[in-house]
Predict the structure.
Amino acid sequence: MNEPARAYVNARLLDPASGLDTPGALLVDGGRIADCGPRLFAAGVPEGIEVVDCGGCCLAPGLVDMRAFLGEPGAEHKETIATGSGAAAAGGFTTVVALPNTAPVVDAVPLVELVRARARDSAIVNVLPAAALTKGFGGTEMTEMGLLAEAGAVIFTEGTRSVANAQVMRRVMAYASTFDLLVDHLPQEPTLADGVLNEGEVAARLGLAGSPACAETIMLGRDLTLVELTGCRYHASHLSTAAGVALIREAKARGLPVSCSASPHHLTLTEDAVGQYRTFAKVVPPLRTEADRLALIAGLADGTIDVIASGHSPENQESKRLPFAQAAPGISGLETALALSLGLYHCGATTLLRVLATLTSAPAARLGLEAGTLRRRAPADLIVFDLDRDWLIEPEAFHSKSKNSPFEKMTVRGRVLRTVVAGRHVYRGPAA
Amino acid sequence: MALLEPHAFPHRHLLTIEGLSPDDITMLLDLSESYVAQNRQLDKKQSVLRGRTQFNLFFESSTRTRTSFEIAGKRLGADTINMSAEGSAIKKGETLIDTAMTLNAMQPDVLVVRHPESGAVALLAQKVDCAVINAGDGSHAHPTQALLDALTIRRRKGRLAGLVVAICGDILHSRVARSNIELLTIMGARVRVVAPPTLLPSAIERLGVEVHHDMRRGLEDCDIVMMLRLQTERMQGAFVPSIREYYHFYGLDYVKLAVAKDDALIMHPGPMNRGVEIDTDVADDIHRSVIREQVEMGVAVRMACLHVLAGTRRNEPTGRL
């Protein structure tokens, strides 16, 4: 580590893990946070320490994404770990969990090692592998979850699919609980979720097959029953319905070891974004109604929803410029996640620290990482951002290889100015 | 018939009924009316589209709609070329966008397109310079069918506003139903949909229709009974249990028809499944059924649509919006 010691001064320190929100300074040394607080460097920064003036902007832990598709192996034309990590850095993410829905699926130790090697060689942020629950996402044979975890898989998931067979899921959960592994599931009952957008008015008008809200609640209800049975640590990804939020709230009240996430797009858009067959607004699970969106926001504010995960899903033009039913689902989301999430604070729906917790300390804690905090001796994974800077989302300027964003030409508030990973500056945003 | 001024029909394409004004629809129906008379003459040929090229591009098989568009184009003097998905580049993996750009390079004046995917015709229309007529896209829209149905009704009833129209059957999968709901509500008719819940899109009431699950209630005092085809594949996937049961509860026969107005008209977009959604005697009832008249109106309506989109005085018939 050849980075000099650096003092970040004139900052608004934001640490959701400790509830800290104060003007102050932070010292990085040896790739870790050496000190931090309102009185640090009150008498000036000593000789030999490089000074970064934050200009009164926010200094927070780097963001942690539990859910991003990074293209490798198999979809390098849509994203690579290098380009995906560039997009992450530009979006303020210092740690990203790479989904296993690659080709081939990350379901064996050598593939976990491949992702880690590619990350080590080409990524500018921390990229951590997720591994599949079942071999080849086949839904029948369990992966070597214990060995995969030893090899470095931090979470187990079927990507955007669900494990349809309840007996298989029960055994996966029971087995995962042996090693206290975290099982992630995107709960959509596949026999009901065979539509291409939300079942409702927009689907009725466009003549497209819809996926009903009950596809989520039926699968989530099953999973929560299995959690109760097995004691498995369970994380429901990308909740999309009001009824789904209510199920998690009730499960938490019963003390089940569950957590859940929502995506920035489900928190900001509804089925209306599909408009006239706009394939950039096609996602899994589908964008729902305004009542669902408001329930997600309420769940985020009251702590039912623990995490905001980008669900970054880069798709190229060939996959999107198709009739709606044939187009691939997905949104290139790493570079817009923070600003969209901050919108929930700017509109008064919740507090700034709550928004940041869902993007930093909460996912880090769930994944068992020491990141996501400004605590002393934590890794110096940091962001400096201007909370009140307005900017126009222009996908052509994305660092991601893919430009599939339904937020094109939207003005958002809150811009990353600097991203720091283990003390290294990996991204510098536009000057003021 | 003369060339029209460009502003006569202020739309570049005809992709859906949504977006048309009552005046647009009335203008199309009036123009169609004049073609009905002409089509009954010995000499049916016009030259309003002379020199224009019309491609009929059918990604889904069709007999009556394609033939109807072809006759319509020929009677207006256009050069009509038929292309179907069989044997075309589409089967060889060419994307819809590439097909559109290839055809566009051949300088057509109007493309008539049918596609099995909802939204596909609008997608194609974004990539071409000429006018596009949607001849049916998936379960989404079939605007010329709605127009020919409206023309048929207007000729028989003298109006559309205030009429009660019951659309019965597989609404869920029907582009005909969606376009008719749009057109009839724009023109002030009252639309009911009649079907079991399995054949209705959820939230269909948000389209401004009354929803009925019982034929007797749905047909009560209505002016028009519009039957839809039930694909026999619907027995798979648990939409309805059997043809026998469907016909018993939702097939149109004289008993169910008795609650409609005495002069209620019976319509069907074809092709009919006799004994599935409609009794054969009802379908052939010369006093009530206008099913064959619908086919005749189809040619006139398509002539009107081709005329307004490809037969204007615009230097570039296709000019930008």
